[in-house]
Write a structure and sequence with these properties.
By secondary structure, the protein is an alpha/beta fold. It has a single domain (5-193), classed as 3-Layer(aba) Sandwich (Rossmann fold), CATH 3.40.50. Helices cover 30% and strands 25% of the residues. Strands 1-4-3-2-5-6-8-7 form an eight-stranded mixed beta sheet, with helices on both faces. A hairpin with a 6-residue loop joins strand 7 and strand 8 (186-193). The longest helix has 14 residues, at 79-92. It is globular and about 40 Å long.
């Protein structure tokens, strides 16, 4: 496993660790199959970002998809979630492809990845952050020109109005909407960082 970067020791109970086990339940694959959802966006050798990965439901499949030459950056505010993810990644044989970053309430801690990320996933996490403007701004800076973000929120927990407000935050950061993938029981949008010369 590559080095875990700890931004600070502040803990905030957003999604309790106990609930993390529900998120990795195998039955979930029936409605949110990681490979089906992510296959259009991830190729071998990519650098990809998983924001708020919990125990790695999407992170580990992402690591398999990027292959031995790719990297997955997993950013979570909870140290315990990252430790659980690390154990699962070791068991899956993909730990060397995953960089763990412990964020804090003010920053995702992506400074060293400026302009390096090909694709980012924000699945059921933006509604939990205190400042969506800052989150999307930091993700925008981390992406390469033409890089994409799949932004998904659960319909049962996030209203359409709240989701649209988050899209406004993304557009303020510089993203434009490119498409609207179908994700079961979810609001979803594909965002792109437009090339400077486009």
């Amino acid at each position: 496993m590559k080095k875990m970067h700890s931004q600070d020791k502040h803990k905030e109970d957003i999604c309790p660790v106990a609930a993390g086990y529900l998120l990795i339940c195998p039955v979930r694959r029936l409605i949110h199959n990681p490979e089906s959802i992510l296959r259009p966006y991830i190729r071998e050798g990519m650098t990809v970002l998983d924001i708020g990965p919990a125990m790695g439901y999407f992170t580990i499949p992402m690591a398999k998809m990027v292959g031995e030459t790719g990297i997955v950056i997993a950013v979570d505010i909870q140290e315990e979630m990252l430790k659980k993810l690390q154990k699962r990644a070791l068991h899956a044989g993909v730990a060397e492809r995953i960089v763990l970053i412990q964020a804090d309430t003010k920053s995702l801690g992506l400074n060293k990845y400026k302009g390096m990320v090909d694709f980012a996933l924000a699945f059921a996490v933006v509604h939990e952050v205190p400042d969506a403007d800052t989150l999307f701004r930091e993700v925008f800076i981390s992406l390469k020109d033409g890089g994409k973000v799949l932004f998904v929120e659960p319909k049962g927990h996030v209203s359409r109005k709240k989701f649209d407000e988050s899209i406004v935050s993304a557009e303020k950061a510089g993203f434009r909407q490119e498409g609207y993938p179908t994700v079961f029981l979810s609001h979803s949008v594909l965002l792109v960082k437009a090339c400077k010369n486009a």
